[in-house]
Design goal:
The complex is a heterodimer of chains A (474) and B (396). Chain A is an alpha+beta fold and 474 residues long. Chain A is built from 13 helices and 22 strands. In chain A, the strands form five sheets. Chain A has a nine-stranded mixed beta sheet with strand order 5-4-6-7-1-8-13-12-11, sandwiched between helices. Classes of the chains: A alpha+beta (474), B alpha/beta (396). Chains A and B meet through helix 12, strand 18, strand 19, strand 20 and strand 21 of A and helix 3, strand 5 and helix 7 of B. Strand 18 of chain A pairs antiparallel with strand 5 of chain B, so a sheet runs across the interface.
Chain lengths: 474, 396
């Protein structure tokens, strides 16, 4: 038996109100908000957070990790490897990027199911993460949001068994970007619905029903991708789905999160599912993948903690100006401070365990955990001066408390002012680092923190990732 | 180990006007300060037997000193962040004490205003040039790295931030007053507490007037053997102690560090007092030039250097202990705040003021009956620092 053994999500805390976008452009608002990745987040950082959430909930070790996205930070260089390293997975973990289609999350899921079925993998984490951009003033600018999700496919402690699947491909040009496009291009909506989206999904559903001798009434929930709320509702009408059956697409709160969208809807469905329920799960893009999922008794335990409902609302509304700055839509005044020197790739490689998974070291003689703010792995203990008596010690998963802080108006950042802190980890060790996702009024000595993988800066073609502290979620 | 006390004397000093010296290059600043020192010591450039040039950003190697046209003598560039100028003086003094030369030159120079930046330019803007090569060092500004002290000091001593800011403001107001009496200071204006507390925030809780000036400048000292000093002048200034104390990131990595003191300051000053034979610095020092890069640090230095009991700098600030008329005048020339802080020059600039004070030549800023003076720098920041404490006296 193969199925979903865990699901995790990541939604940025920032929301851009569509009324704010409309106000900026003197246009019409479609209502609601969209989730916006922070100035220091991207597809990779969100995928890391979703993968860590999924791994923590699942409790199993992954031997495969894939990333489904249309917005990989590198054209050449695997993003899944960055995610796997940040998630501290073993080097034997099989990593893969699935790119260039909105259907990649279900394509990657299908590949993971096949791998587990074939016995070539035990637990594969499929992450999906996207930060797609619609051109300013356009329909897609309001529609598209940022987010990530991750499912673990395995054969033990399954919460949703995969009973069957059916796939078709379709060379249809509804949404696309070429190498030179920053913004998603779209064909005419009515053409897309009538010639592409509806017939393709219809055909996949009927194929699945025929193959497994099912009818729509056999499903308590139908979870399906659509480009926006209008298209989503259109399919419900055309397919005559019972409205009770249809999983709400979350577009009002977070927007269409691209490759993450269908999995985020699935997370919402799983949060409410009961043992024995059956879910029809559909991914779309250049074709269609349809799955039959049967909820097992394991779901009850999994539902002890909310998966997505507590994250939908976000925490901070941003202005269009912030959005435009973070996404580099307008040139903004440069810092008067000199640029940072370029990073050294050999230097980065040497300290890769610190950079990727925030490893420091613990002294075997005196037991002191220690980490340097510049990444140098200690050779001589800062506490007892013993030489080369260290074992690796991971800080990424440790809670911390804010010992002191400052709000820095000089530091070059896309989201001024910057917050920096001296943070003390539970169990020992101190780090001076940047804080992110802070409500400035609530920053205080003693504040509880957790670590988060973020983009520090981009320079000379290199995305420089490292860890920051953020207010603890609980 | 008998230390440096009374082995070396300063017999000449020079210091440029500090400030935004747009029309003067590094070479102008060096020549301006050095020729004042040559004249002050009554010597010619050819009398210099060895030289040390201290700069953080304004030149690599000893060739930085080439504008002086010293002819084929040993010259070395030294760098130790904000303690750089003091290090040049320490190197020159040690050479004289070791007997390898009789007349040595110490130069400190910095041309910050060529960077085009309003802040301090550098390999890292953290004021921590050990940024490492991995590119992950936090990129907070220099004021931020000292703001941690203020946040924690206010927290630990239950001082509401608004009150704390008014307290720190008194330090800036004092230093501006002193600077207003000093034609060589970068800023020569008095300011008010209201101006300080209402100024734009730079790194909370520190505002604009809590931060020192970013300036150009150079300062120079000529040292010789103590027993030869009177051949140069009647009022040489004798070196009593020279201590440098360097941290190894203990405070940045270990949770027992409190961020309300700087261990390097405490240990460095204790060693300096021991070397100089000082038991009670508050009583025995006539004046002190300390590293007020940010107001909170001057306040912490009062406690670290034993001027105020731990946790009680506030009472002394409010009592006016460190004003020109106070019990122990601190930063009589305006300090980094007002005289300016061209990094490599600052240590020697401080010594220039103490030297003039001990000679009774400090004009309207003159302290009464001067005997011993101290200069103090802190390179780096809270968490890991480089503390320099030099003590000099006008009697052997």
């Amino acid at each position: 038996m193969v199925g979903i053994t865990s699901i995790g999500v990541y939604l940025p805390i920032y929301r851009l109100n569509r009324d704010e976008i409309a106000r900026t452009w003197t246009g019409r608002s479609t209502g609601g908000t969209k989730a916006v990745a922070g100035y220091d987040e991207d597809t990779v950082t969100m995928a890391v957070a979703a993968a860590l959430d999924c791994l923590e909930r699942g409790g199993a070790k992954a031997d495969g990790l894939s990333l489904a996205t249309t917005t990989a930070p590198y054209k050449e260089k695997q993003s899944a490897a960055i995610v796997a390293a940040a998630a501290d997975l073993a080097a034997e973990c099989h990593t893969a990027d699935f790119t260039d289609s909105l259907r990649t999350p279900t394509i990657a899921m299908k590949a993971a199911i096949d791998a587990v079925k074939a016995g070539s993998a035990e637990n594969v984490v499929v992450t999906a993460s996207d930060c797609r951009m619609g051109a300013a003033k356009g329909v897609l600018e309001q529609a598209l949001g940022d987010g990530a999700a991750a499912v673990m496919i395995g054969s033990e402690k399954i919460i949703a068994e995969v009973e069957g699947s059916y796939s078709i491909f379709n060379d249809f040009t509804d949404l696309w970007r070429t190498e030179d496009d920053r913004f998603v291009r779209a064909a005419e909506q009515r053409f897309v619905d009538e010639a592409g989206y509806i017939p393709t999904v219809q055909s996949a559903i009927s194929g699945l029903m025929k193959k497994y001798k099912q009818t729509l009434t056999d499903f308590s929930k139908i979870v399906y991708y659509a480009s926006d709320a209008r298209q989503h509702a259109g399919l419900t009408r055309r397919m005559k789905f019972d409205k009770e059956q249809v999983q709400e697409p979350l577009y009002n709160e977070i927007g269409n999160t691209g490759t993450a969208a269908a999995l985020l809807m699935l997370a919402a469905a799983l949060e409410k599912a009961k043992p024995g329920d059956r879910i029809l799960f559909i991914g779309y893009g250049d074709g269609c993948d349809a799955f039959i999922l049967r909820i097992t008794d394991e779901i009850t335990k999994f539902q002890e903690k909310p998966v997505i409902s507590d994250k939908l609302a976000g925490k901070t509304e941003i202005s269009y100006g912030q959005y435009a700055t973070w996404r580099n839509l307008v040139p903004v005044e440069a810092s008067t401070l000199p640029d940072r020197p370029p990073l050294s790739l050999p230097g980065r490689w040497r300290e890769r365990r610190t950079i990727s998974a925030l490893y420091g070291a613990r002294c075997r003689k005196c037991g002191t955990p220690q980490i340097s703010q510049i990444g140098q792995t200690p050779r001589v203990c800062v506490n007892c001066q013993a030489k080369d008596e260290f074992e690796p010690y991971k800080f990424a998963d440790k809670k911390a408390a804010l010992f002191s802080y400052t709000i820095d108006h000089l530091q070059p950042t896309l989201n001024p002012p910057a917050v920096n802190g001296v943070i003390d980890f539970e169990g020992g060790g101190r780090l001076i680092c940047e804080l992110t996702d802070c409500d400035l009024d609530k920053v205080a000595v003693g504040m509880k923190l957790e670590m988060t993988f973020r983009k520090m800066f981009y320079s000379r073609g290199i995305h420089n990732y490292f860890w920051k502290a953020k207010p603890a979620s609980d | 180990m008998d230390g440096i006390k009374d082995k070396v004397a300063i017999v000449g000093m020079g210091c440029t006007k500090f400030g935004e010296r747009w029309d003067k290059g590094v070479e102008d600043l060096i020549v301006e300060a050095a020729y004042e020192a040559f004249k002050d010591a009554g010597i010619e450039p050819k009398d210099i037997q060895a030289a040390w040039i201290g700069t953080v950003f304004s030149g690599l190697s000893a060739i930085t000193l080439s504008p002086l046209q010293l002819q084929y003598i040993p010259i070395t560039r030294v760098e130790n962040m904000c303690a750089t100028g003091s290090e040049a003086l320490r190197a020159a003094s040690y050479a004289v004490a070791a007997g390898v030369c009789d007349v040595a030159l110490a130069v400190g120079v910095e041309k910050l205003k060529d960077s085009g930046a309003t802040g301090v330019k550098g390999p890292s803007i953290v004021g921590d040039n050990q940024d490492g090569s991995s590119g992950i060092g936090p990129s907070y500004s220099a004021p931020a790295s000292f703001a941690y002290l203020a946040t924690r000091y206010f927290h630990d001593y239950n001082i509401p931030p608004e009150e704390g800011k008014r307290l720190l403001a008194q330090i800036a107001v004092k230093n501006h007053h002193n600077g207003s009496l000093n034609p060589k200071a970068h800023f020569q204006n008095e300011i008010t507490i209201e101006q300080v507390v209402n100024a734009p925030i730079i790194a909370w809780p520190l505002g604009l007037f809590d931060c020192c000036g970013v300036s150009d400048g150079a300062s120079v000292a000529i040292v010789t053997r103590a027993d030869m000093a009177k051949n140069f002048r009647d009022d040489p200034v004798y070196i009593k102690s020279m201590q440098v104390n360097v941290g190894a990131r203990q405070g940045a990595m270990l949770q027992d560090y409190d961020f309300v003191h700087i261990e390097e300051n405490v240990l460095g000053s204790q060693k300096a007092y021991a070397e100089a034979g000082i038991k009670n610095p508050r009583k025995e020092l006539s004046c002190a030039e300390v590293h007020d890069c940010f107001s909170i640090h001057e306040m912490i230095v009062y406690e670290d250097l034993g001027f105020s009991p731990r946790g009680r700098a506030r009472e002394d600030i409010e009592a006016g202990t460190f004003t020109l008329e106070g019990e122990l005048p601190v930063n009589t020339d305006g300090g980094l705040k007002c005289f300016g802080h061209p990094l490599g020059a600052s240590g020697l600039r401080m010594m220039y003021e103490v030297y003039k004070q001990l000679q009774g030549k400090a004009g309207p800023r003159q302290v009464k009956n001067p005997r011993l003076g101290l200069t103090h720098n802190l390179g780096g920041n809270a968490g890991t620092g480089i503390c320099s404490c030099l003590i000099v006296g006008n009697e052997k």
